[in-house]
Fold these 2 entries.
Entry 1:
Amino acid sequence: MADLEALVNAFTGLGVDEKSLIENLGKSHPEHRTSFRKRTPHFFIEDERSFERWNDHRVKLLKHEFMRFKNTLVLWAMHPWERDARLVKEALKKGPQSYGVIVEIACTRSSEELLGARKAYHSLFDHSIEEDVATHIHGSERKLLVALVSAYRYEGPKVKEDAAKSEAKILANAIKNGDKKNPIEDEEVVRILATRSKPHLKAVYKHYKEVSGKNIHEDLDASDLILKETVECLCTPHAYFSKVLDEAMSSDAHKNTKKGLTRVIVTRADVDMKEIKEEYNNLFGVSLSKKIEDKANGNYKDFLLTLITRDN
Amino acid sequence: MASLIAPASHVPNEDAEVLLKACKGWGTNEKALISILGHRNAAQRKQIRLAYAELFQEDLVKRLESELSGDFEKAVYRLLLDPEDRDAVLANVAIRKSGDYHVIVEIACVLSSEELLAVRRAYKARYKHSLEEDLAAHTSGDTRKLLVGLVTAFRYEGDEINVRLANSEADILRDAIKDKAFNHEEVIRIVTTRSKAQLMATFNRYRDDHGSYITKDLLDEPADEFKTVLRTSIRCINNHKKYYEKILRNAIRKVGTDEDALTRVIVTRAERDLNDIKELYYKRNSVPLEQAVAKDTSGDYKDLLLALLGKED
């Protein structure tokens, strides 16, 4: 039954293909549906009393997929400040695997945008962002994350090359001694990453390669994830966003990772989507639109594609 | 309550003319300067600067800098800057002098969240670095963490207090201070992120539970820079008027008088709560602040301070 494959596809991936479901399920006769239930063991379980039952877990997953479009809309219509404040709160609640979102917001937003998020946070949650981050995070990342969300970076182009060079050396040493002391607990590393301007940090990034022979993120591995993400967000944000998008669309992505697709597109569509698309193409050899076309469904897919092709 | 007495309305152009006349020719008519500058609020002073620049194509600040000197000139300069600009300049001076951070602590802990933000903005515009950037580069260790935490805070400003939290954090502070090793991390977290209302509840709880006020416990040996900064920040957060009264008292009592401190407190608080500080001063010292200032200062500098303290012309 060719329709069976189409039907399964309509439920597979990010979002659901509403049109296909209407066409296939809506027009189906009872026998078609019985056949569908019998031939999709991952959706329906054979019950001992001789009927095919929906797999509860699968229904829950479906609920999330149906909600993806609604969540995208709500997030899109939201004021950017409220958006960022809510994203940080959610990340704090979800725990360590989501701290990357806090890094993302603290490091890729402009100084005024981050400030706005902090104001919105006051209104929404009756606490300051730094207060909650400090209270909820107990591990080695606390100092760095509190410092990152409190930053109000200078945004002009002036950079002191000497300072950038010496700070690149400081970073290189801290990373080299990483097995003795965690670099993100080094107060100099925190100072440099959390207070210096972005142009300055890009100069540091450049000098790092001269000092250490490798790019800074090549010297960092999975055990330094927060540090890696911090450096990427500050120095190479478009590459960072491209990676988040690609991970969100990979087949075995965790449900939190999948949310990266909505988050990045909604939060960057008005800012630097064009550069992100270019970088995505460079890194992965396929256009972002095509990848979304393949991996997403229905209204959710159409909405995302609309967002990323707005200026074309 | 403010001590500065300013008219409800003024004509910026007229004021600018008076100032120009005061500077023209040989010498300067300081009395005329004081009669205007000592009796205009920040918004009015800003308008006068703009009017002066438009009418006479000159920066009033630069003009006065060249005409005046000494403590009087310093006081006039501080007075003419916008409040946030002034604090940015004071912060930069403090950072470069290094070693004494109480001015930075004052700015970070006494101002409201929005006011502190305005200072950070003014600092960036003036010095092409963020305040925290320069502060971090000139300090180290736990003092750095505390100071940077204080200046980058954007505290929630509501009155809500979580009593349970106040209890537990009072205990954390007590344990941290009494412990020989003195774990600074938690102390820094609490003091640099909690709202002021929450902190005051915490400090009160500390005193109720442990008998002594937290700042007294911080006086125990050995003294170090971190404890000093911490004490100052707690005093500023808890009762900044009392803190300022002590600064003034020390500034006047000191042999020779600390004009920098005197100018700073009077100029920065004249439009905010200098009257309340005056009351505290009188209660504590049995002599009015104006009298003590008049005794210890002289000339135009004295006249300007007295005007800011509320002396009518």
Entry 2:
Amino acid sequence: EAIKHCAPITPSALIKTKKQLKNLQHNQSTLETPLTRKETEKIQREVAFEKTSKEVSRWQSVVLQNQKAEQLVFPLNQEPSGPKRIEHVVAGWKAQTPLEQEIFSLLRMNKQPLHDPVLTPTEEASLRAMSLEEAKIRRAELQKTRVLQSYYEAKAKRGKKIKSKKYHRVQKKVMRKEYLKQFDEMVKTDPAAALEELKKMELSRMKERMSLKHQNSGKWAKSKAIMAKYDDGARKAMQKQLEVNKDLTQKLVIPADEDEEDEEESAETLPDFVNDVEPILDQVNPWMRGKLSTEPMMEESNRLDPPVWPREVGKPGEGQDEQEEDEEQMEETEEESLLRGFEERRKLRQTEDYNSFSIQTPDGKKAEILEISDYDEEAVEISDDDEEAGLSNFTSLFHGLVNHMEPPADQPKAGPGLRQGESPALLEEGLVRVRTLEDVELLSQDISTSDTALLTTQILGTEETDTQSATQQADKKRKKMIDPNEVLTKEAKVIEMPLAPTAVEDVEDKEEQRVIIKEAFAGDDVVSDFLKDKRKQEEAGRPKVIDLTLPGWGEWGGLGLQPSRSKRKRFRVKVAPPPPRQDQKLPNIIIAEKRDSSIAAHQVCQLPFPFEKPIQFERTIRSPVGRTWNTQNAVQKITAPKVVTQLGAIIEPIAREDLIKDNRQAVTGPSINLESDQGPQKKRRSQQKKQHKRKKN
Amino acid sequence: MVSPKIFGNVLSGRCKRNQQTHFRQIRADIALNIRNPDDYVRETKLDIQRVPRNYDPSLHPFEVPREYTRALNATKLERVFAKPFLASLDGHRDGVNCMAKHPKSLSTMLSGSCDGELKVWNLTKRECVRTLQAHEGFVRGMVVRFCGTSFFTVGDDKTIKQWKMETPGYGEEEEPLNTILGKSVFTSIDHHQKEGVFVTCGQQVDIWDEQRSSPIRSFSWGVDSFSCVRFNPVETELLASCASDRSIVLYDMREATPLKKVIMNMRSNTLCWNPMEAYNFTCSNEDYNLYTYDMRYLDKPFTVHMDHVSAVLDVDYSPTGKEFVSASFDKTIRIFPKDSGHSREVYHTKRMQHVISIKWSSDNKYILSASDEMNIRLWKANAAEKLGLLAPREKAAVNYSQKLKEKFQHHPQIRRISHHRHLPKSIYSQTKELRVMKEARRRKERNVRKHSKPGSMPVVTEKEKHVVTVVK
């Protein structure tokens, strides 16, 4: 009947149902057995865990915020302290005096709130719509955006007014780079849009091609063509442009087209780079000039992408446009960066070729050892001035090396106490019970004695290692300039230490390096530099005579009058000579004796954990905290404790409402900083003060 | 010359009407560089005296050495004033097995002992205000309802009892409000933060409605007994429990099944949720360590807290969530920063035996420890802190010295002094022994690694070592 009601049975429908029935009869596969209870429970558990962990993760931002907070004030949700309104304090208060009654009748007439709701309904509604804090944040945000917008507009206007072609070219280049970056990202994220962009690029390439640039038909190209007969550089530049032309006329396959355009532009600039010639200052020692000579440069340039042309080769060309000059400057910065990279690499190599290391003794005393024997033959007499310059150069390099070496030497020192994945113990637990201030002081002396003990053993150890004879030392004193061959005999014991690999390099590179380094240090007298340096340090360590004479005391004083000799003699203080230097008998070693063991007990010997560079740590120590050096407000701000709790207040666990509030804050802006936290309190205090005054009056 | 102060007095002393003329007269008489009195005269006598100060750094040289000396002195004084022990509450006639904080009153505290006796203490007076025989056998656990009007206890006699917080009046009998008879012994109890729901554990984890005498939900996951169950104070529907099969199990009250469990090398005794970070909890383990977990990533704890030399029996977070305190079988209490691997403080007394239960007071100032030898001890959370109200200048001085200590904390002398703690000989030697054992184990592992095929002995970090599996 139901079927009849629904629709009249047509023969086709009948056939359909018949077919379905048949199918059902044929289909003999059973239903799948339900999962076992264990498995279903497992699935349920996993789903539930996912859900709860997601729910709990909402707290992440709040937790992080609290961790980073400069100051946390507990309990978290405090009611504002300070004077409350009378309506809040007194519950059943009524207007009694006629004046009060009059006032209240007035209020009632104006529909002002009387008792509990201090605000009018409209005010309340507006408050509910947006709290004061939120409003402040919002306003600040709006202000910021407005200001930013105005800045941006002003900047754009200024930029538009600039006539410099170079500026616009640089700007264009930057834009292009950014665009490329975006494109790369787009390829990853949104391939369809990237394809569109690609088409656009193709179009721009076509336009470029049609513009008949790079055809060697321009003014510049014509001038070059004249030069090309005589000048190698010009020829090369022309070839370069032809290559670019070829690239452009080819159909593009990969999206790296923009890049090539960049290169084309730089190629255009190359010839004038070739054009100018730099006067060669010192043919003998190219290293001293701070620039490199041709050979290594060429090698480098082969390796690196943007070709840099040797300066000496080029001759001043005729087609020098102003615009080209501009571009040349840009090129130079590139070249400088290249040079810098090269210099760094050279420094690294030096560590190997010179076999120089610094030994970090456990007590921190640094022994700088340099083996110079390789370069004995090359020692050349150079004029004093040159030597001086070389010396400074050398020392700076050497310090750089030492700095390079130090971190690996430090690490094992920190090692023994620490285990992997463990932090050092916070407490030093012992059997000594500290009761009085004297005990505490003994504690601190404890380490200083242990430190000095270490030091003495250290000194003994170094004395053992020295094997040099004293006769050579005597020679050294007499002569001002010493032939290094006399002092540095081959027998000099070289302390060998496993050297931490400073850089990973290929085997093939090594040959090249040697060549480069030999070349680089060709005119360098390393040995005499070293000796000079050592002598300087000795000089610096020698005590100086202190002159305490004051003119005019006991005799006439005035312009051009010298205190008498007897007086000068009397007030001249001679300081006792320091103990002999540790490297006195070691000609090829400089042991720095800057470290003072008496101060060392108070000094930090290794960089504490969160700091990465000594400078950072030193900076934290250098800035004073106290009232003597800072204004009161600054001191208050600096010394504000991280956690503030209120006396006798119960601190409840953080509540869900906080989460919602904090999230809203996180969306709208950062948490309120200390200043603004203190602000209202101060205000309140001043108000109280004023009230006080009024009462007095 | 007339000093400015006298000048000021002259000004204020004269009557007002001829002030101007007088002013001019003085000016004529004496060539002074006249300053504005507002700069150095206070408005009322309640104001602070204005002291002009020149902050030119060249006038105040040696800032670092001077501050270093101040820091050193501050550290020394801190050690001298570090007297954390405040009071001992005695009165129990057997070892104290559990304690409970009052959620609404700082001065009230409850303790239950091994003979079934329960005492309510007034901490400010340091005296017992009420004693009642709650159970036969141990009082295993207790918890105060969130409103503070009643509390629940569980004991060895298989019962859950609800008691009024108020002391019964004269002539009234000490009787529980409610008694629920269970099938097995309950070992721990905890109450929901806001609703009338509590949870017990024993052979399974049961969730009870206060109005019903049978659990509204029970969780069991192939484990025979649980030692501790705790509600999450922040995400109030979450629970965690420690089971005797060395596992920690997580639950959601709204779900039908447990969520996840992690099995560790040894059994965890108790756990405590961080009250400020919803997903972090710390468990005290039998293997002398404490482990802080993020409940979302149970496969390894994110911090391992070591220093105890015996099983850790209890742990409680400070209400600020920055630190926690642990009680151990080795007769010491240690305070750990929540993300540090080692303790910042260790408390012990000659007479304190195995510490069974520990609580951090909810104003973040005190620590309460209950131990085997029937006493409850009250400690300061910061050993050298001055108790009571501080004058603003005192507060400023404390803040300054705190900042200095923090600034120079890496300097060896200050470090040595501030980190020095006295330990009883037994614990000291045990620490040493443990260190030697650990070193030996490490050396052996290293040697084995050295002589085996590279890659066949992967390096297992300390954090990974203690977790066996995570069961989904």
